[in-house]
Amino acid sequence: MQDDLFLSLVQCLKITITLLWRNIWKNNILQERCLVNMSFQYTDVIVTIASLNFDILVRFYTDFLEQNPASLIPNIYAEFHLVSLRLGIFKPKNSHASEFEANAKNKISLCLEVSNLEDAIAHLTALGYAPPGNISIASHGREIYAYDPDGNRLILHQAQSY
What we know:
The chain has 162 residues and is an alpha/beta fold. It has helices spanning 2-26, 29-33, 54-65, 117-126; strands spanning 46-50, 71-73, 77-82, 85-90, 109-113, 136-138, 141-147, 153-159.
């Protein structure tokens, strides 16, 4: 009798999963989230920073993130594994160095969601990279801009509590 009950439950579960799957697919829920129409697939995304001052930048991020690189090829590449992100720092080859020389403004920022903005500011300040401005209030919370040793913009953001 227990075997029959177990088989009935398994059959009901199969039917439920099948119907749920069909409903999700029909409503394009999975089609929008899957790689259905993509001509390529990717497995991970890595944000990389090119730096001619490789050692200084790796040391800064080691101290700032309070972790050693997960992988390190001295004077070539370092990679930090953060929550939901891999941050890579690489030294460009001499033949490409001019592409990565300091520009007046960098349009990309590394935005870090923090639980306590004041603690994050104190940490950066202790490293010698105090944010130059004041905390600003936005509709989504509080934030402040800071810069790494190469001048890349860091945005420290604390979400608004509701």
